[in-house]
Fold:
Amino acid sequence: MHTTHLNLSNNRHYLWLSGFVLLLCLNAYSALAQSPQSFTIRGQLAQPQTGQVYLFDQADNQVSSAPIMGSTFTLKGTQMEPGLYNLKIDGKTDSKLVFVEPSAIQISMKTDGSYQVAGSKLHSQWEQYQNEILNSARNQLIKLYQERAVAQQKGDTVLCNQLMKQNDSVSIALGRSIRGAVTQKPYTFFNLTLLRDGSWDDPFITTMLDEFRGQFASYPTFQKMEIGLKEKALQLQKVAIGNKAYNFTLPDSSGTLHSLEEVRKAKKLVLLDFWASWCGPCIAEIPALKRLHESYANQGLEIISISVDNGPKPWLQGLIKHTPAGIQLLADGKNKTIRAEYAVHSIPQTFLIDQEGVIRGHNLRGEALSNKVAELLGK
Structure:
């Protein structure tokens, strides 16, 4: 069967139309914009003092302040949607996290540094989530990490592997619990917050946004997430099978520059792999990529691995520790162009690129990847 391949030059009308549709969506969202809503936080300190109390959002922007009157204060302000805020008190080094919503909220400080919040159902939800889901898993993972460090010092690889399996089990269970919290009814804004802050696949995000639409479509978080999905879909059109791959030039560990164009012209097939030294799934793929390289390097396969580590130090340490196959390049946090051009929103990401620079495969793994490489090399 003949397959028609579309490259970017043939998709100009599609991309222009998609951009126009996105603009229409932005205009529609502006019509749905949430009006500012008022909140009040009345606080009771453990003992009288002087000074000010401040409220900061998660971007560390001050949104409200108030004087301390003896041992009480009253913060007032408006917000476009509920959210987690930092409450800071003059003379105190720590801050208190409060999930603020448009209601009358009370906060009471204790002499031991703890605090209690009343009047915010969302704060109660957040607190329950912290205590019943996150803290338990966090404590287990810290304990396993400490035990694994001791086992590594003793050279006990068997115990290390057992502890790593336990670590994976706890992490998987945590992921399931968080997913359950996202889907738990009745829906509140806290569900949307968990959806925003998690690492979910696009189909799950789309499904849950559709679930939340009736309640939260007017909120900025909902609108940003939905626009983000549409923008990502546009980016993915650039890396659709049959399109031309973006040409890049990046340095290796010695500073020598390598371009995709020069490598693909010298070889028959390029496997482009995006990874990072901190990415567990990426590290797990390295042995399979080594075997693939050994099997097909003489037939014309080259691997280009691009690290998205935040700097050269962790990348170089990762190269020494894991010795991945192929040409190793770095595109750190400052290089956003290549991530955008290849729509790299998560890692690992892989692309098969032929000698003409056409994308022939995307995110293949294991036997599927090996079979596709053999097919494209004519073996």
Notes: The chain has eleven helices and 15 strands. The CA atoms of residues 75 and 265 lie 65 Å apart. The first helix runs from residue 12 to 31. The chain has three domains: 37-119, 123-238, 249-376.
